[in-house]
Specification:
The chain has six helices and 13 strands. The chain has about 250 residues and is α+β, with helices and mostly antiparallel strands. The chain folds into three domains: about 100 residues, Tetratricopeptide repeat domain (Serine Threonine Protein Phosphatase 5, Tetratricopeptide repeat, Alpha Horseshoe); about 80 residues, Immunoglobulin-like, CATH 2.60.40; about 30 residues, no CATH class. It is elongated.
């Protein structure tokens, strides 16, 4: 009788330990999922990737962790990484038919999204972004920044987007298909903190461009039937102008 009680207590204790272990595992996974969601909302994709990979390491069969990780890659324009992540879900044993259908649809949907050439993050040199789409749909983008020189709203992408001044740039992109349907957007953040030598190069470039522009436009210019004189500083001549031995009035 005594031995039966001992055996029963041992079994109950073992079950309790297993239940606590399962609960602890689920809680740890959920903690990482919550962190991943938080970082994704803040556009801190690298931290989100770290958190979600931790969740997958804790529970390699957690479908939600893979789904969220793929979403991070989609939103940051890393479509090949998104594809590889979604394909891993299809290898999970006992995957439900609903999950399988959802994953297959998301893999197909990748062809409608925008791939971005540069990883989001901080850069210390001028950075150019190239956008692309597998189906060659039109791509539109918006740049949010305090620098009005770079601010753009829903412009069609034609050439690489260059950022060459200090600042924070949030870029949102999407495609529009042949039926003018807009597809899911990517949204990334870049922070430029240029090295001093890069700033010096940029200043020289701007000064050279300004000088070239002035030299190219100064002198007499005809607009329609009228003639105008552009001075060395690029301004239109007004009043009297003495050129050689001739005097002109405007």
């Amino acid at each position: 009788m005594y031995m039966k009680k001992i055996k029963l207590l041992f079994i109950l204790a073992l079950v309790g330990i297993l239940l606590i272990g399962c609960k602890g595992k689920a809680a740890r996974v959920q903690e990482q999922l919550d962190l991943g969601s938080k970082y994704m909302a803040e556009l801190d994709y690298e931290s989100a990737i770290v958190a979600l990979n931790k969740a997958i390491k804790i529970d390699p069969k957690n479908v939600d962790a893979y789904k969220m990780l793929a979403e991070v890659y989609e939103k940051s324009g890393r479509l090949e990484d998104a594809r590889a992540t979604l394909e891993k879900v299809l290898d999970i044993d006992d995957l439900s038919s609903d999950n399988e259908d959802e994953i297959n649809n998301r893999i197909k949907n990748l062809d409608f999204l925008v791939a971005i050439s540069k990883l989001p993050g901080e850069y210390d040199e001028p950075t150019a972004l190239e956008l692309s789409n597998a189906k060659n749909f039109k791509i539109y983008y918006t740049v949010e920044t305090e620098n009005n020189k770079f601010a753009v709203s829903n412009a069609e992408y034609i050439e690489p987007i260059l950022f060459d001044e200090d600042g924070t740039y949030i870029v949102t992109t999407h495609t529009t298909d042949e039926n003018n349907v807009e597809h899911d957007e990517a949204k990334v953040k870049y922070v430029l903190k240029l090295k001093s030598e890069n700033k010096d190069k940029q200043s020289v470039k701007e000064e050279t461009e300004a000088t070239s522009s002035t030299e190219a436009t100064k002198g007499w210019k005809q607009v329609g039937d009228d003639w105008y004189y552009i001075k060395d500083d690029g301004e239109l001549a007004k009043g009297a102008l003495l050129e050689g031995k001739k005097e002109y009035y405007f």
